[in-house]
Each structure stands twice: as C-alpha cells, then as structure tokens.
Design a protein that fits this description.
Blueprint: H1 4-17, E1 21-23, E2 38-42, E3 45-51, H2 60-71, E4 75-79, H3 84-91
Parallel strand pairs: 3-4
Antiparallel strand pairs: 1-2, 2-3
Helix pairs in contact: 1-3
Amino acid sequence: MMRERVLQAHVERLLRVCGWRYYHTHDSRRSVAGFPDLVALRPPRFVVIELKSARGKLTAEQDAWLAAFARLGAEVYVWRPSDLDAAARVLGPGA
C-alpha cells in the first residue's frame, strides 16, 4: 500500500517534469487547517491537489478549501495512489 508521502513525491516529480510551478507546505502543523497539499500553476491553468492514501478521507476543512478554490475557477483534484495515471493525463505536457 502506497503511503501519502510516496504519492506526493510521484506527483511532485510529475509537476517538475511537466513544467508546473507548485507549492507544498512542508510543515502543515503550522498552517491553516485543511489547506490543500499542492497548489500548481502552468498558465493558463491553476490546479489544486489534495492527496490521500487509499483509505484516507477528506476533513471538513479540506473539503471547504477545495470548494472555495473550485468557486474561483481552479481545477480541483483529490488523488489516491490508484489515480497516478489520471494525474499524468491531467498534468502531462499535452494537457
């Protein structure tokens, strides 16, 4: 079973290789509760990503942040290890 931090490493590598600028808060204990794992830009696109283990669930705070970003027009994704192929399609160079 893939841990969330391993999934994050895969997605961050994909973001770098595909030319995205991205941000990840490395110590979420000092951040506002629920802020997404990754915020990424590759104009004209703005993508917000929450990463979860296979069984992980969104908190109410995470859901609220994702909904707020979506209302602003961001593409919002919740990805699990089984979604790596989808992540590659969404973030890939031709996307």
